[in-house]
Amino acid sequence: MNMDHNYLEYPHRRHGMDHDRYAWSMLADRAPVSWPQGRSLALWLNVSLEHFPLDARGEGFKAPGNMTMPYPDLRHYTLRDYGNRVGIFRVLDALKKHDLQASLAVNGELAIRYPALLRRLHATGFEMLGHGWNMDSVHYGGLDPVRECDWIERSLTALAPYASKPIRGWLSPARSQSQDTPELLRSAGLDWCADWVNDELPYAFATRQGELSMMPLSLELEDRFIVGDNLHAESDYADQVIDACDFLLDEARRTDHGRMLALNIHPWVMGQPHRIKHLERVFDHFAAHSEAIWNAAPSEILSAANHAGPMA
Amino acid sequence: MTSPAGNIPKADPGLFDYWPYDSRPKISWPGGARVALWIAPNIEFYEYAPPPNPQRKPWPRPLPDVLGYATRDYGNRVGHQRMMRVMDKYGLRGSVSLSAATLIHHPEVIELAAARDWEFFSHGIYNTRYTYGLSEAQEREMIEESMALIHHHTGQHCDGYLAPALSHSESTIDLFAEAGGAYTCDLFHDDQPTPAHTRSGKRFVSVPYSLELNDTITYVVNKVEPRRYGQMIKDAFDRLYAEGEHSGTVMCVPLHAYQVSHPHRIRAFEDAMDYICGHAGVWKATGREIARHYLQHSYDDALASIAAVAKEDPA
Fold first, then answer.
1. What residues contact B180, with CB distance under 8 A and at least 6 apart?
2. CB-nearest partner of B133 from A3, A221, A244
3. Does A14 touch chain B (CB under 8 A)?
């Protein structure tokens, strides 16, 4: 059976993008961004705190890290919950030891399930981000916008009592969006989102409710991707992050354009006892280059980038 | 199954004859080089809302697959110029495997490549429009349109072809040869160019395009560590360089800016190029230059050698 002729028609073939979400531009061609105190590299660390329900339905698709075994998949349920009980405290200790700050992207349901965890997260004073309801509630193409709106509002309402400042940013579970997610995030009063991994600096993102900023949070450099999906050694994870840091520092100095390293960390991955020292080696490297690195909350980084001029 | 409706799939594509590596006439590259090195950056466009194809899903997640789309878009927004910087440093010109729609979406990227005297060859229209399910007339239209776009926007004749997303039909190579192409990158059976059979009987050549050293295959499919990828490139070079003392070999490094140009990966590629380009006897070529040289100097000898091998077989 042959394809219809419209398979060779291209209604969105035009200059720029084939959608209207953002303008086309290349990183190297943009006006330079500069960070406070003349630092070369903005360092955004994000720690994702996630709840993977045992009765995963996989509506839309199953987010990575989900249940894979026949019900009840105690193996994956407990390995994920480990991050919220044990792993997070190793990660927080490592941050504290290196005088680093991170943002905390937290599934809303965790605030209902584990208020004791949220009180401890609150005590860090770190910026908190919405991270969806749980890891079995992905925002996928075709999701009913009424349900999606409810998930977003419920998530933000649940986290609000524990956030030091009003929540401005969002990371969708599995970085997945429906056709309406950007509009719904804007309508919920959020300023920025981290889902699109197509850039290394913040950029302007259009919604029907007004402009959102996109703060790309690297997928290919995150622990779950490198250690979990690619099965690379923990030591190799550290090498890769260190190589990225060194490259971006060099590129920033060479071009006199500020760069950003955005690193997502999962306590259920790097919080394991055999992995935490490799995360600490990464933090040691950041500390060794502290004269050139500006470690800040993502909303501060976004403000500084905006301050440099209109975003791409 | 990509056989036209009603046809029985073939057990052998019939595109090349068996030709053992130990019995071939010597290939002499320009300047007596041992290895013809060519770098093939894929400059691709993946669509936000591609039409469905019953034989292959363009994106794994329900549309919009924001993660898949953004992962590829990174190459165009961030990656190309990092890769170009490394290639400039070592005097390497790219042979661009081009989603022809990129000429229209992102002419700024094309200008950067054209200014460096890079070659452009066809990789279809979009990397989310597959050959699967196309009639022969439709596939011909797609191939010819991609070649016409390349000529219109760059002034170059499109000499090479790599089917979009490596999606093929039984007629792909035939159609490209008939449309005026000189070489295909779609066959991975050799480390030297080889003649390829096409139904028109044109002088047509397969130029090695290594899938094993393709960054997307190594990083995405084989999940290789960045530093190991750099080492794999060096190891492949060492062997092809050694063998190239006796007869010229081809080394291709196919790249995708959305893979190789990540901050944790670009250094491994740079190290490998630094190592390779520190050797004398490396012909920094393009796909077109390799194909033309081979057609002019080695093709006829190759046909004779292949025929002689066939005669070894009992009748």
1. B147, B157, B158
2. A3
3. yes
Answer for the pair A264, A223: CB distance below 8 angstroms, yes or no.
Answer: yes
Establish if B21 belongs to a structural domain.
Answer: no
Domain that includes residue B110, residue range: 29-312
Which of A17, A177, A221 is opposite residue B264, by nearest beta carbon?
A221
Which residues in chain B come in under a pLDDT of 50? 1-2
Q: Is B129 on the interface with A (CB under 8 A)?
A: yes
Residues of B in contact with A218 (CB under 8 A): 262
Whether B7 maps to a domain, the answer reads no
Of residues A5, A26, A176, nearest to B77 (C-beta):
A26
Pairing of strands A293-295, A41-49: parallel
A42: three-class secondary structure by DSSP? strand
* Domain-located, residue B176: yes
Tally of CB atoms within 10 A around A14: 11
In a domain, B297, yes or no: yes
Size of chain B, expressed as the number of residues it contains: 315
Residues of chain A with C-beta less than 8 angstroms from the C-beta of B262: 218, 220-221, 244
Q: What domains can be seen in chain A, in order of their start residue?
A: 34-307 (3.20.20.370)
Is the pLDDT reported for residue A197 higher than 80? yes
Q: Residue B65 is part of a domain; what is its CATH number?
A: 3.20.20.370
Q: How many domains does chain B have?
A: 1
Peptide linkage before B13 cis (omega within 30 of 0): no
Residue A306's pLDDT is: 87
Q: Does A27 contact B107 at a Cβ distance shorter than 8 Å?
A: no
Q: So what's the pLDDT on residue A309?
A: 58
Which residues 261-290 on chain B approach chain A with CB closer than 8 angstroms? 262-268
The model's pLDDT over B117-132, given as tens digits with 9 standing for 90+, comes to: 999 999 999 999 999 9
